[in-house]
Please model this.
Amino acid sequence: MASTSKSVAAPQPVKLDRSLTNKVRQRHLAGKLITYIVLTITGLTFAFPLFWTVSSSLQTWQELRSYTLHFLPTVPQWGNYAEVFDKAPFARWLGNSFFIVLITIPGTIITGTMTAYAFARFEFVGKQFWFIMMLGTMMIPSAVTLIPQYLLWFNLKMINTYVPLTIGAWLGGSAFMVFMLRQFLLSLPRDLDEAATIDGANPFQILWRILVPLMKPALTTVAILQFLNDWNDFFGPFIYLNRERLYTAAVGMRYFQFIPLETTDPRDHLLMAAAAIMSIPVLLLFAFAQRYFISGVVMSGLKL
Amino acid sequence: MTTITQTSKAPPIPNRRSNERRRQNLYGYLFLTPWLIGFFGLFIGPGLASLWFSFTNYTIIGSAKFIGLANYIEMFTTDDLFWSSLWRTFYFAGVGVPLGILGSMFLAILLDSKLRGVSIYRTLFFMPSLVPLVASVILWKWLLDSNFGIVNQMLREIGIADPPGWFSDRRMAIPSLIIMRLWTSIGGTQMIIFLAGLQGIPTELYDAASIDGANTWQRVRNVTIPLLTPTIFFNTVLGIIGALQTFAAAFLLTPEGGGPGFATWFYALHIWKNAFDYFEIGYAAALAWFFALIIVGMTIFQTQLSKRWVFYYGD
Model:
């Protein structure tokens, strides 16, 4: 009896299971399709403004103001890009932006790592206090410190130099990046330090020879974030630089919006070309170092 | 006997300990030095200076005279732009931040579905956040140009004869800025933080919910969202701190800044204008300090409120 009931009962759940998986699979497929459709529509919406920047930058102004809906230039006007460089010293401004970044990236890497090392590896008096202070600086609006900072640099005759724009990076850099580096250091086992200490290494040697090589991914992320900060920064260069030849690309862009040119023709096509020129270095960096953009966020966000 | 053994044995231990403690202090502060210089020189010093200015009538020309709370009283009583700029700022943050968070969370959930080719979409969503602000303001002014903008051209094409004036319309200026902010922020770091949060949710929970017969929506509603509350909280706090301080876009929109009219005259712009255009340093400092209080207050308030709705799995 027991054996027959078993042999009868056994196939049933299998049959039921198969119809269930079929249904699940169908539903799964429909879900997948919907997800793809939604992702594609949103993705195209997000990409459209970028596409339109490039497309506008390759049209003539008459074409852009024609009142007929069109998405592509009839004949791509590559000359617009040359015209931008011709009408304004954009090459110089881009060079200035690169120059600033070349100064700030080593600064933030060296002093940011030092600060993070102090917080991650040493038990000094007041450590908690300083750490909370550092996080607190992220909350205070820059408007609070901006005016006295400006007066300070003004009195030190540092207006129209890159000192006010770069010194912060050499004094610990941004609190967010220090926090990120500290998190990363905390994830490295202390045994490494201890083994090196037994071998007679001092803290400088431990940091430089053992920890820094292991921190390369985190430091790459910091370098990228610093690049983005300085490349995109508008107000810093805007208040500290008032000579055209010292401008960064961001300030130059604003300037180019309103400077008088020989003609009073609309300059939307040129502005779009300039916007594309300014975005290209950032997008190129992203294309080559995508994973560092993502990992930086994950490093700081996950462990908070 | 006991005293002798104690005195002969005890000293070396505290000594070694205090040596170690001294070493820790020495190296700790040595490595902290650059940051400490920056902290005092670029943050505490200027912060205290502006606190002092806020009680004076300092205007660059001439010396500062102590006038007590007069600047603060002026803010609340005679400055019309103070209240209206505060209102505009909260309007922008209050609408923009929640929409941004919902959008980022929605996209992150879609991207988390482990489909093939998802990284291409992630790249597409992320790219707008990389466009420099100055460039994106110029771009959006052009996209939303009331006459020749491609958006209005498309709207006219589908039969909307009188599309909005966007940035040139006082009522639409802030909504237009919100749209621009959504474009630059939804797919950026905020979305990546959500993705990281999603990856931290144990798959057993989804399996358990499926076995109990939960459909996709129920799984999102009862597993994903509760477990994402810490991430939502984190993004909200950062989003609000950022949105309240927004003014670069408003500054860049029109040659004089804050236009059309005063439609995008945000609080931070009000500080800026007082400081760098009207040279009312004392008054601007008072505005800035009050602003700092608002932001710190908002953050503390949100942290308190979070105890009611943020759920930490495994606690």
About this structure: Chain B is about 75% helix and 0% strand. Chain B has two domains: 2-53, 71-309.
